[in-house]
Structures are given as structure tokens and as C-alpha cells.
Amino acid sequence: DSGVTQTPKHLITATGQRVTLRCSPRSGDLSVYWYQQSLDQGLQFLIHYYNGEERAKGNILERFSAQQFPDLHSELNLSSLELGDSALYFCASSVADLPTEQYFGPGTRLTVT
Amino acid sequence: AQTVTQSQPEMSVQEAETVTLSCTYDTSESNYYLFWYKQPPSRQMILVIRQEAYKQQNATENRFSVNFQKAAKSFSLKISDSQLGDTAMYFCAFMKRDVNAGGTSYGKLTFGQGTILTVHP
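Predict the joint structure of the above. Result:
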């Protein structure tokens, strides 16, 4: 157990819908990262937050947005869902702003039908 | 942009034997980190080992060790005394040591395609 929690574990929804994935970092960690793992794209970096501020953005679609709250938990919002958004979404956390190790949560499996 | 390549989609090894997983990467950076992550059937991503590019000494963690060849941009993982619990997908990953927040790569892990390792009894 990495200490990073993600909810829900599984999510099944229809195309065009909007969902919110939640992540709580390890105690004391200020950085949160989101990654998407799909069969065709592999593991891809989406976004990084540090202490509430966005630090870096990767290949994140405009339909996706994220934020980190004052209690350091983070949410990833996915809207206008398409079949291709079906994937495993990971959250990871690290202590420092400049990370050397990221600890991953168990992931949220999103299925869009 | 950085790329990470794992040329072995699948590998298998007998229990107690040694196996080496290959990884190559392409970057123009001189300061970076390399990682091996393990993803067992549970799908949890588990950090196996980390290497700083400025360190010449190869990292070791118990039965896991790396062979880091900076000039060749090669970073292989050796698993000694393989155990059934080592069965998993293994990902090689690169992270640029970017001290400037706001860059598109800040804190970004770039992963290879993965190698499925099966340990047979």
C-alpha cells in the first residue's frame, strides 16, 4: 500500500457524460500527478500540482481539468466523455516540488460505453 | 522530447534464475532520473529502483540492480533469484531534472511500452 488513495475504483458511464476522479496523496506529500494508462497510448502524464498550484501540463485534453484543494487532495474532471477515454487513471504523489520518487495510487478504472 | 523504448514485449524466466530487462532512451538532457516500475496483475504501480544520471555507480535494491550506460543511453534491469511474485509488467521511465516550475516536463515521468515478465515455477 503506497498510502495514496483514489476513489472510485471503478466507474462505468456513457458517452457525453462528466465524471470526477478523486485522489488523496500520502500524508505530508504536497505534489500530486495524474497519469492515464490506455491500451493504445500506454502510460501518459496528464498534469502536476504542487501545494494547490499547477506545475506542469502534459497531453491533457481540453475536456479534462484538474485541481488541488487546500487539504491537498486532488480531483480530475473528465467531461464530454468519449469511448477513447476509457482507461486506468492513476494519481501519484511525492513530497517535494522537484520530485525524485512518485508513489502511485491503485488507480480508477473508467469505462465509457 | 524524451522517448523511452523497451524492445522486449514479453520475457519469461524460471524461478531462482536471473533475467535482464532492456530499456533505451533518447534525450538531449544531461541531468535526469531513470526508474523501473513494476505493475503486477493488481495494476498497482510500484517503484522498483531509481538511478540519478549524475551518479556513475549502478543502483541496487536487494535482488534488483541496474546497468546504467549513460553514453549508450541504456538502462537495463537485472532481477536475480527470480520469484513468482516478480511476475508483472515492468516499465522503464525517464524524468528530466527540470528545476524550473511551469515547464511542460516538470515532474513528468515518460514511460516505455512495458515488458511483461512471467516467472515460471
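Chain B has no helices and twelve strands.
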